[in-house]
User: Fold these one by one.
Assistant:
Number 1:
Amino acid sequence: MQLETLRQSLLATGARDCHVDRVLRAWTQGKPLDAGPRSQPAEHYLPLALRNALAALDAQLSGLARMRSEHPGDDGSSRLLVDLADGQMAECVLLPRDGVCVSTQIGCAVGCTFCMTGRDGLLRQVSSGEMVAQVVLARHLRTVRRVVFMGMGEPSHNIDNVLEAIDLLGTAGAIGHKNLVFSTVGDRRVFERLPQERVKPALAISLHTTRADLRAELLPKASRIDPAELVELAEHYARTTGYPIQYQWTLIDGVNDSEAEMDGIVRLLTGKYAIMNLIPYNTTAALSYRRPPLERVTALAHYLHARGIRTTVRNSAGQDVDGGCGQLRARSLDPEASPTSRKVMLKQLKAGVR
Ligand code: SAH
Ligand code: SF4
């Protein structure tokens, strides 16, 4: 269900915009649909026709994303397998520190050679209603202050729906705009559309290599934007929004963990408003890629840090629970990892992998 369709069907009961907004606010915040001012009964603030429609609406909205199973990890994250109304299954991860990672597509057409989601291509788009419903499901379980669009799928390939969900979450859903994170391999549509939005999300760019040839190999169907240009486009967005770009670099042993690659990062990111997140590859039985040894990961982080690149090392959330649907790609983008919190990053570096 698209959010616009939902809004129109509520307006069709004769309700006014302010009433519809109230219901959407209640839903996105994980409250009963008729929630309103605590001291007043619903008949004081919602018209009868709308109140009469709420039971059916509630059933419909609950059906958008139902929990199939929960797999708690020992790092405070918990992976949810979620049933959608047509029987498809999406992955959604509760992250430590009040975050949730949602899926934007079932499957993915980019076909990154190291990612399990890309293996079967794109099965279908996830609707804007289904994205918000994943957040609502999470809000029934925990406090949610941060939503990262980093689950299954490539958000730029479903950009209308993703931006519609972001808009509702950043308004009625009361999530801070920089706590909505759009994670992408990079696509010109992203740089055209995001700056025009009233809710401008933070941007995470999955870079993985600074070599255009290797990038084309590893991310076969990603837009062919040269890494240097990608960084320039992203930098412009960071300056527009006032929040840094979170670069993601899935570190794969012998593939993109060389000193030459690190020098490439230094060349591209020096002076940029950016944070480099090194993510040791989460090994999956089905693929032959491996993560580099821990000492190497730590050494690379130090190497970048010593050259002035803000760097964090992070593990996929809930790595210990990667049973079930076969992969886990949730990232814990730490809201504290802002450029000002050097102390936090130094602590992370000292601790090695978090
Ligand atoms: N399509 C978007 C968002 C979903 S993938 C994107 O690529 O950014 C989110 C992140 O998970 C990407 O950075 C991807 O490189 C990473 N990822 C995928 N499989 C992984 C694995 N097995 N181990 C570690 N990171 C992985
Ligand atoms: Fe798609 Fe992201 Fe996986 Fe690449 S890493 S196949 S873009 S979900």
Note: The first strand starts at residue 66 and ends at 72.
Number 2:
Amino acid sequence: MSTLKDLYSAVAAGNYKDITGLVLKAIDEGISLDKIINQSLSAAMIDVGDKFGSGELYMPDMLLAAKAMKTAMDVIKPLLKGSEHIAEKGTVVIGTVKGDMHDIGKNLVIIMAEGQGFKVIDLGIDVDYSVFVDAIKQYKPDIVAFSGLLTTTLANVPEHIKAIEDAGLRKSVALAVGGAPVTQHFADMYGIEIYAPDASSAAKEFVKVMGAK
Ligand code: B1M
């Protein structure tokens, strides 16, 4: 589909001004939101990351691509939210781990989880250990999810877990983790109940965990 290709190119080039029109065109052509997100938007972000990694693109290019992605998601988000009549399935507290500023993937997980009927408390980026602990006390969530994109700051995940354990709150929540460098093995190493490679499987795993409660 050429609109999917155009969208991919626009995100990869950080051409955020054309994005809204292209997303609306794709929707008009009957292309599923899933295809728009996975085949165009996310795929383009991965391409930008690879080119940044190899020195072909620079930080401003990544920022522009991120802005284009956000512009697209602003159009898509209300359409993904699903029916307001869905019964609330549970509460999720989510944040990007301490030291990490990436939030596009986390925001997609939020959209998908809300679409499945979860109430989601977004703690934002670079979230301190104590902020997760305070949010668990305040919102009494069923699930606490960590998003991590940097290999370096993934080392903070066990510290997050330790803070939750030290506050005596570990048994009250199921933990979840995801992000490009995260694996099932990583989750298993720290006794994290849920690992999800992408946003839609994260929402599905949240539903599964609630079913098992
Ligand atoms: Co950064 N960055 N970045 N970056 N960035 C990466 C991650 C990188 C892989 C690029 C590269 O070098 N190839 C690399 C990390 C290398 C590593 O550690 N493995 C990197 C680097 C090095 C950096 C800086 C250190 C660069 C620098 O300053 N020298 C710096 C770090 C700043 C910091 O965080 N302290 C930095 C900064 C930035 C920007 C600010 C410019 C921007 C972020 C903007 C923003 O988020 N608002 C940015 C971007 C855009 C990227 C890339 C290009 C794209 C990330 C993205 O949004 N992907 C990225 C390259 C890449 O990932 N290949 C890169 C699209 C998004 C939909 O996918 O986030 O993976 P993702 O989320 C997926 C899944 O992972 C999963 O679901 C999502 C959707 O399906 N998922 C979860 C995510 N969270 C989940 C939580 C769950 C479950 C699933 O809970 C259960």
Note: The CA atoms of residues 1 and 189 lie 42 Å apart.
Number 3:
Amino acid sequence: MIDIKKVGIIGAGQMGSGIAQVCAQAGYTVIVFDQSAQAVADSFERINKGITRSVEKDIITADAGEKARTLLVPAASASDLADCDLVIEAATENEDIKKAIFKAVSEHLKPEAILASNTSSISITRLATASDRPGKFIGLHFMNPVPVMKLVEIIRGIATDAETYEAAVRFAESLGKITANSQDYPAFIVNRVLIPMINEAIYTLYEGVGTVEAIDTAMKLGANHPMGPLELGDFIGLDTVLAIMNVLYDGLSDSKYRPCPLLVKYVEAGWLGRKTGRGFYDYRGDKPVPTR
Ligand code: CAA
């Protein structure tokens, strides 16, 4: 079975940065690649801040933090991933983009390398067909914020071999995470349950049942959720929430998964949540203010 020492990350956004951080904190050498060099530079800044935070929170020692910083390497091209034992794709939640990445990267990898996708909803079986190694292809779905959340969902495609699955479980556990297995159906477990709840909260707002504040307060204090559903939607990114609703709607052909028109409107406006400064809350001032 492959001994994972070097990990490649493709996509240096919020999730890719978080995954790179936890891998480096666990002692892996991490190669970070993104088609935008600026995204890689921004990612390293985010990861450095994250490592400082992990030290402050006593998640890791100061020495482990310093060591982690030395293990992170920016990549200039996909060929820099050539000697990675595991490559985790964490690009945007778009099937065509992900497939194009797997097609392009496959030729650079050594034959025994494992390819994983951090997709939060798209079929692992389908994504695997774009690679040259469906047997060594698996879903490793991290939760946001990666350095804080304990879970990694593990999703086997129809062709994923037993060795790859076992290596993936051991790898996730070596990061200090707990795994849950999901069958390869649209949005897996967490997002099959969580994202329709957020969509329903948006319907609750759309239909005037409650205000943004009332809905979030109700769910925080009435159901003990750490964040209200609208706040959480902004945190995840409303474009991602919409993309996952569409995967559920298309993949399960059930009208109960239709995206709320108000969610569509926010995404069309470019009000995607925290990352764009505005979603169901406006984050541009000192404290978040509801946008309706
Ligand atoms: N390294 C990097 N970032 C860190 C970190 C670390 N060691 N520790 C915390 N963070 C980040 C968080 O992302 C957040 O960012 P900013 O404040 O910089 O904007 C911030 O630091 C919050 O950290 P706090 O120290 O204030 O942590 P907290 O104790 O207040 O808890 C929380 C925050 C863990 C996010 C909590 O509110 C929570 O559990 N919320 C729900 C999160 C959730 O449900 N996540 C799952 C989303 S669904 C998903 O991920 C699946 C998907 O595919 C869409």
Note: The domain at 6-182 is CATH 3.40.50.720 (Rossmann fold).
Number 4:
Amino acid sequence: MARHLRIASAQLGPLHLADSRKSATGRLVALLRDAHMMGAKFVVFPELAFTTFFPRWWMPDQDEVDAKFFERAMPSPETQPLFDEAKKLGIGFYIGYAELTPQGEHFNTAILVAPEGTVVGKYRKIHLPGHADHKPDAAFQHLEKKYFQVGELGFRVWRFLDTITGMLICNDRRWPEAFRVLALQGAEVVALGFNTPTENLHYPEPPALRVHHHLIMAQSMAFQNATWLVETAKCGAEDGFRMFGHSVIVAPTGEIAVKSQSEEDEVICFNCDIDLAANLKRTMFNFAAHRRPEHYRLIVERVGAEITPENR
Ligand code: ING
């Protein structure tokens, strides 16, 4: 009998600078209830789900940034209602937030919370896009390299709701290595929250092309690693700065099972056959039978591309 898990992607519309933790948590609780009515047992929320995407703002006062956007505890009194409701409904969830550790470290973090309300897994974002310097002439900033440290927990998986589940965050989906490390640990489901600007801050890029990239990456990463992939957006115009939606649940076959329609609060849900990947893992993507790591050394040893002298 194939294992099934009804998974929901709980997309969040805009959170503005003026929005409180309390109001954000209230919307997340409402999305959780919607997911429950759809029969979901696992809900994937977005990256940085309790605040606006603050890396778009240059804020030199770190104490102000810490106070306004970072969580010293998760759950905290303001976010506790989400954990209470999930426990009451018997739902496990993934959620992203800005973590400030007791040692003063700053991470873009995601956690896996069991239906009993306990945090069973933590991931700290490794691929931090954007820049650390102020770009005063740019329409907006993308200061993840300023506000966050590179995560040091690695890419890991956990036994979760009778599946092997891994976590990634946003820009990680642009780096195939991240998915492969999870798949090499047996990942069957990958949860990924994202906040992706509609506009490219570096050069003019058609917004439809950015969505195209998002969708082809999701489908190829799910297929090439024979995993379910749930990618959930925080989206819409936050203080006028638009981010795209297109939350998706992608099957190990690479097919989009369901996709969100709006750039607002919206829940999509699918009854995922976790064993759908069995044939792929046994044949086409039987890693043990087909991979040749002895030829992959450059992937680990080299950071940037290098052109050898004879090819210059
Ligand atoms: N956001 C974006 C992402 O990777 C980005 C940043 C967009 C980088 C487009 C490069 C191109 O989807 C986050 N939060 O990583």
Note: The radius of gyration is 19 Å.
